[in-house]
Amino acid sequence: MQKFNKELVADSTFYIFFIEDSKNSNLLCKILNSFKAHISPTIYDELKMKSRDQELNSIINNKCNIFKDSRIKYSEALRPVFSKEELKKGEHEIIAIAVLCDQMVIDFVLVIDDEGPRKIINSHFKYLLTRLVRTARFIEQCYSKYDIFENGESIKLLNDMKSSKFRIDDKSIEQLLKELEK
Amino acid sequence: MEKIELIEKYIILLLGVKDDSIYSDLHLQKEMFLLANSLPHLKEAFDFEKHYYGPYSQIVEEIIQTPRYTDKAFSFDGKKIFLSENGKTEYNKIIKIKSKENSFNELSALIKIIRSLYDSLSGEELLFLMYETFPEFTKYSEVSDNILKNKYNRKRILEGLYAKSIITDERYLELKNAKI
């Protein structure tokens, strides 16, 4: 059951963290049961390939909005801006979905860790900055702001992040853990 | 809707989505080119050709000079192009009719992305990115060698693009390390 009207636009790093780094698909299910998520075609394909969790797959297929039938190829407009590798990974798609959600006056959280799209949003789509967070901060907010996680669940996820290959500096995680342990 | 009418409406949307004018005919042509490429079902209608200054559509040029469906839709101030009062009225009419349609919102988002990114570029920065991204359009170009192969110019333009944060760090390195 969705708890509130806020929706979610997140990059692949966010989803893959729960599935591979933390191996905590059930907590990702909790998020996707609370937020309506908008998922890009490349991320959807990646999730289909990597997720073995039936409950998660069912939520993704039945509750999330997958942008797979659009007649518009946003990548063509963004091709000059991103490297071939970034385009292959679909990093540009998050910008298209975020601008579209904003256009549709949707109230959403924008979770991006990839530096490429973050840089472009910081410089050219400043009106999205109030929505922008990194995965680590969002995990903390799932306890403190959205009341989706127990305090211990957020702490565990951040500790998983600290010991995984997830690219984030220890200082930022320590700061968030400190906030959670208050 | 006829092909010409559709393209005329797309130009009105491109110009209307921001209060600012488009800096030059070159900017308008390249932004329309990116728009056309993003709409595979309509791409052919725009008929972009390889030209002296990259992708160019004669149809777009003719509509800008002599719009057929909205009289005097476009105004010019030196090189700058913007919507006239007639153009603005037509723009508002389109928004009023279409803004609840999902496919129209997708189109509006695409147009916003294009203008947010490429309006701020100089002519040679825009051409540099067009030629690098769509190398087939260097054919017949009078300026591509000077922009892409002259080491001094290449470095200067690339650093400018990087400073404007118009390209990601990975794209910057890709272009910096490209064989010329």
Offer a concise description of the structure:
With 182 residues, chain A is of the alpha/beta class.
Q: Notable features of this structure?
A:
heterodimer, A: 182 residues, alpha/beta, 5-stranded parallel sheet, 11 helices, 5 strands, 58% helix, globular, B: 180 residues, mainly alpha, two-stranded antiparallel ribbon, 2 strands, 60% helix
Structure description:
The complex is a heterodimer of chains A (182) and B (180). Chain A is of the alpha/beta class. Chain A has 11 helices and 5 strands. Chain A has a 5-stranded parallel sheet, with helices on both faces. The two termini of chain A are 30 Å apart. Chain B has 10 helices and 2 strands, in the order ααααββαααααα. In chain B, strands 1-2 form a two-stranded antiparallel ribbon. In chain B, strand 1 (74-77) and strand 2 form a beta hairpin. Chain B starts with a helix and ends with a helix. The mean pLDDT of chain B is 95. Chain A binds chain B through residues 70-86, 95-96, 99-100, 102-104, 115-117, 119-120, 122-125, and chain B through 34-35, 37-41, 102-103, 105-110, 112-114, 116-117, 120, 129-130, 132-133, 164-171, 173-174.
Count of alpha and pi helical runs of chain B: 10
Structural class by sheet pairing and helices of chain B: mainly alpha
Run of helices and strands of chain A? EHHEHHEHHHEHEHHH
Ends of chain B: how far apart?
45 Å
What is the helix content of chain A? 55-70%
Helix/strand/pairing category of chain A: alpha/beta
Estimated share of beta-strand residues of chain A: 5-15%
* Rounded mean pLDDT score of chain A: 94
Strand order of the largest sheet of chain B: 1-2
